[in-house]
From TrEMBL:
It is a multi-pass membrane protein. CDD domains: TM_PBP1_LivH_like. Its main location: membrane. This is Branched-chain amino acid ABC transporter permease. The chain crosses the membrane at residues 16-35, 42-62, 91-114, 187-213, 234-255, 267-294, 306-325. It is found in: Cell membrane. Coiled coil: none annotated. It comes from Marivivens donghaensis. Belongs to the binding-protein-dependent transport system permease family. LivHM subfamily. It comes from the Bacteria. Keywords: Amino-acid transport, Cell membrane, Membrane, Transmembrane, Transmembrane helix, Transport. Pfam families: BPD_transp_2.
Amino acid sequence: MDAIILQLFNGLEKGSAYALIALGLTLIFGTLGVVNFAHGALFMIGAFCAVTLSRIFQISFLTEDPTQTDFLGNPLQVETPYVEKWFGADAGAWMIDYSVPLSILLTIPVMLLVGYVMERGLIKHFYKRPHADQILVTFGLAIVLQEVVRYFYGANPIQTTSPSDYSGTVNIGAMFGMQIFYPVWRLVYFFFSAIVIGGVFAFLQFTTFGMVVRAGMADRETVGLLGIDIDKRFTLMFGIAASVAGLAGVMYAPILSPNYHMGMDFLVLSFVVVVVGGMGSLPGAVAAGFLLGILQSFASLNEVKAIIPGIDQIIIYVVAIVILLTRPRGLLGRRGVMEE
């Protein structure tokens, strides 16, 4: 039972990342009809926003510390971060410790800008082109972005730590009378993902802007005939989708050390999630993300791998094949989508 509960939480954590990335992908496909193979790179950029802010906070200068001396009795020179000089020792140390969650404040405007530039500078020229062209150009863009990141940050993974208050473990099995310890930050990531997903759905469901966007997703031409500039709203939705992917990346940095190819690693999985959930279906993307995350987690149990070796590596693709053969539009996809 303890192994089952542990794998369930692992699945929810994996599913959170899959759902966030797939949600952004579905927003772009549902509004613009674009298959964006650069979406994984947006996840990577978000993770490196956390790396960047952490490095900025740790920029330091040398000062003499009279409380520390060398063997000759001379004061030692120590590195003091500028944030500790500007904001005080306690506040500066707190900012360095909480650099990952504080990176959200940097990530949102950065990803909105990146999304706007991508859509206006490149994507808009491929709206009426075949999906194959869209895949090729966005995949090429993803390669360019990851090579730029590798040039500035190197090829090795960069360890990024969570705040010290959330770096330990918590006994999640206490309510069941068991001893099951789980990393606190992974629980934080799950709840953070739930908040972001709920925020996106609330924005689309309860705001006038969101209702217009949903109407445009259903019938773009009719909305345009009503005198509404739907293109501008869709451009903003591209930026929001990029921000969702960036937020998924920035909070995932302490779980998976950022590296230049992490976007590609998540890209294929997220597209499988979108296909399983249904192209253009936002609830389908979220449901499929958590479903596949949980299935992948349980497939990694030693008891399961002893029966079917390597099943944890292919379970997601097996599910996708079954879904495509039996229900081509996906679990919650609209009738007629991917069924021609």
